[in-house]
Amino acid sequence: MSSKKRKSGSTTSITVGVSNACSECHRRKQKCDRKRPCGTCVSRGVVDKCCFDEDFPASNQHGLLVADRVPWPFQSDSISTELDEAKNADLGYSLGKGSNAFTSLTHILDGDDDLQAVASKHNQPAPSRTFNPKSQALITQLPCRLVVESLVTSYFSEVNWYYFLVEEYYFRDLLWRWFGDPRAGSANHLNLEELSRELRSFPAMLFQVLALAVQFLPREAPTFRLLSKNDLGLCHNYSDTGIELLGSLGGQGSAITVVQTHHLRSAWLKNLGRGVDAWHSIGNAIRSAQVIGLHQSKEIRQQGLEGTLSRVWYDEYQRRIWMNLFIWDSLIAMILGRPRTINADDCDVEPPVDCNIPKDPSITVPMTSKIGQGNAVPNTVSMNLVLHRLSQMFNQVKTLKADKPFPKDYSTIQVLHDQLTTMLDNVPVTLRHQNPDTSWDSRYPYLKQHRELVLIYANLYLMTLHRPHVAHYAESCRHAIQASITALASLDRCFALTKPEQYKSFPLSFYTVDASIFLSSIVAAHLLTESEVKARVDRVLRQALERLAIIEAYSPIAESGLAILRRCCGKLKDQCPQAYIFTISTPSTVLNPFSLQLRSSSQDFRLQQAIPTMHSAAYMHNYQPHGQQPPSLSSTGSLDTSGPCLFGSNSAEDTLSTMADVSLFNTPTDFDESYWMNLMNSIAPAPGPLMDPNIVWGEFS
C-alpha cells in the first residue's frame, strides 16, 4: 500500500494511507472492483459516494486541504462545464413545492435527469472550483492549526453553551476535512456538491468562531501564550475578515456555513453593543437560510439505514439552526423595536426534537423525553425550545397588536400574560426555577445559568407585553414592576455565576440596564406606599448599580447605561429619600427621567465616578466566585484603579491581553445614553392625573 504526506501546517505533516478500494467500500470494509462507479456502490445506490484516492485534491499553498477522503466534486469535466454555464443563470427561483413552474413538475418528472439539471441551473449559483487570489490571501490570515484548535476548544467550552448556536459534531467534521485530518469519516449526510459548498465557505465561519472565542478567552487559557502582541486586535480582525472572505467567495447563501457565519457575526456584534449591525447580520443569516429552504419541511429519501439516519439527524441539525434564527429575530425585534424578518406564515418546518445530536448519527434513532419528565437527561436544545415558545408568544403579541397602547380589549393582555405563566409551569424540570432537578448540575455546569436565563427572558417578555400599557392600566403597571424585580434578581444570581472574562456578554449588561431603567421610571411616576416593595426595589437597583460598576470596564453598554441609571436613582432618592438608603453622587441638577433631553456638550453626561457605598465584603464575595479580588474603593467612593486590577496585574500589556479586544471601546455602541433616554421617554405616562398609588401597590405580590 502506498502512502503520501499531507501538510496541515508549516511544521506538521500527517501520513495518510491510500486504499485501492473506493472510499465507501473502504469504510464498509467491502470488496471493490475499482470501476467508476464500482459495482458495490451501484448495487447499494450510493454512486455519489464512490471515489478513489487519486481523486483527492492536493493541498494548497497554505497547507490547508479543501477536503479529506471525499472527492472535489467539480473535477469531472462534464460537471464542470455544466456548472460553468450555470454561473450566471441564477434567476432566484424558490425550490419550495409549487412555488414556480420548475418545482411544480417534480411530482410528474421525479428523478428525471434533464429536469434536475434545469432546476439546478436556474436555482443554485455554482461556486468556482478554486479560491480566487483575494480569498486565498484572506484565508492565510487564519492562525496556525495549533492556535485554531485551541481557540475552537475554548469556544465550545466557554462560549457555545450560551445558546448552542453551533453543533460541535458537524463543525469538527468540517474542521477535520478542511485540515485533511484522517479523523473525518464518510459524509453520509451530504452529497458531493453539498459538501463542497459547505467546505468552500467554512473558513468564513471559522473566522467567526475564532472571533467569539477570543472575545471570551479566559486569562489562564494556554492560547494566550501563543498570541503575539500584534494579535491583540484579533477579535475585530477575525470577524471582519470572515465577512470579507464570504464576500470574496461570491457566496449566495447556499450553504449552512454561510448561514452560521452571519449568525455568529450577529452574536459577536451584540456583545460590542452594535445592535443595528447585529440586526442586519441576523437578517442576512435568515435570508441565507431561506435560500436553502431551512424554513420549510423536507422529505428525506431512503439511502440505506446508515445514510437515512445520517440525513435524518442532519435535517434535525438544520431545524435547530432555523429555530435559533427565529428566536434571535424575535429577541432583536423586542430590543430594537424593529420589524421582524421572519413571517411565520412562510414557515412549515417542525421544531427540533428535544435531545442531543449523537456521537454517531448513522446508528442512532432520534428519540425525545416528555417535557417535565423527572428522569429526562439535560441536552443542548432544551433551553432554546423554551425560548422558541417565548418567541412564538411574542409573535402572537404582534399579530394581536397587543403591543400598541389603548387596545380594544385589554383582557387580551391578561390572556397573553396567563399563557406565559402556564408555559413556565411546563418547562423541563432541570430548567424550571422553583424546585428544579439539580442532580445534573455538576455534570452540566451551564444548567444553573440556563435556569436563570429562562427566568430572565420570560420576565423580559412580560416587560415587553406590559410596557405600552403601564401608563394607563394599574394591572400592567403592577405586572411590569413585578417582572422587572424578578428579572433583576435573576440577573444578579446569574452574574454571581459568571466568570470575569464573560462580563462582555450582551444579556448581562443590556438586560440589567433595560430592566433597571424600566423599573426606576415606573416607580418615579407612582409614589411607593408599601414598605416591602420599597425594600425589594431598593435591593435590586442597588445590586444593578454594583454590577454595572464592575462590568463597565468590559462592556460599552454597561458604561452608558450606568450613567443614566445613576440619574434615575438620584431622582428616586430625591422623591423618597427615606426609601432609598444608598448613597449616590449625582449632578447638582437631577433631570426628570420622563423628560430627559440630549445636551449639546458631552460633558453633561459625565457623572461623578461614584458607586453605591453598600460594598459589603459578603456581597462582593458573591461576585468573585473564581477567586478574583473585588475592585477596591477610594475615599470618594469611586473605583480605585491604583491598586491591583481585576485580574491581579497592573501591567498594561497584561490588561490588554486579558481583554483581548483592545478596540472594544473604539467602536461606537448603538446603546449609548441617547438610546436609554429615548427608551425612558417612550414609557412616560400620558399627561393628566396619575393612577392612584393604592391601586398600583395595593395588590402587589
UniProtKB/TrEMBL annotation:
<keyword id="KW-0804">Transcription</keyword>
<dbReference type="Pfam" id="PF00172">
    <property type="entry name" value="Zn_clus"/>
</dbReference>
<dbReference type="InterPro" id="IPR050613">
    <property type="entry name" value="Sec_Metabolite_Reg"/>
</dbReference>
<dbReference type="GO" id="GO:0003677">
    <property type="term" value="F:DNA binding"/>
</dbReference>
<keyword id="KW-0539">Nucleus</keyword>
<dbReference type="InterPro" id="IPR036864">
    <property type="entry name" value="Zn2-C6_fun-type_DNA-bd_sf"/>
</dbReference>
<protein>
    <recommendedName>
        <fullName>Zn(2)-C6 fungal-type domain-containing protein</fullName>
    </recommendedName>
</protein>
<feature type="domain" description="Zn(2)-C6 fungal-type">
    <location>
        <begin position="21"/>
        <end position="52"/>
    </location>
</feature>
<dbReference type="InterPro" id="IPR001138">
    <property type="entry name" value="Zn2Cys6_DnaBD"/>
</dbReference>
<dbReference type="GO" id="GO:0008270">
    <property type="term" value="F:zinc ion binding"/>
</dbReference>
<dbReference type="GO" id="GO:0000981">
    <property type="term" value="F:DNA-binding transcription factor activity, RNA polymerase II-specific"/>
</dbReference>
<keyword id="KW-0805">Transcription regulation</keyword>
<dbReference type="GO" id="GO:0006351">
    <property type="term" value="P:DNA-templated transcription"/>
</dbReference>
<dbReference type="GO" id="GO:0005634">
    <property type="term" value="C:nucleus"/>
</dbReference>
<keyword id="KW-0479">Metal-binding</keyword>
<keyword id="KW-0238">DNA-binding</keyword>
<dbReference type="Pfam" id="PF04082">
    <property type="entry name" value="Fungal_trans"/>
</dbReference>
<dbReference type="InterPro" id="IPR007219">
    <property type="entry name" value="XnlR_reg_dom"/>
</dbReference>
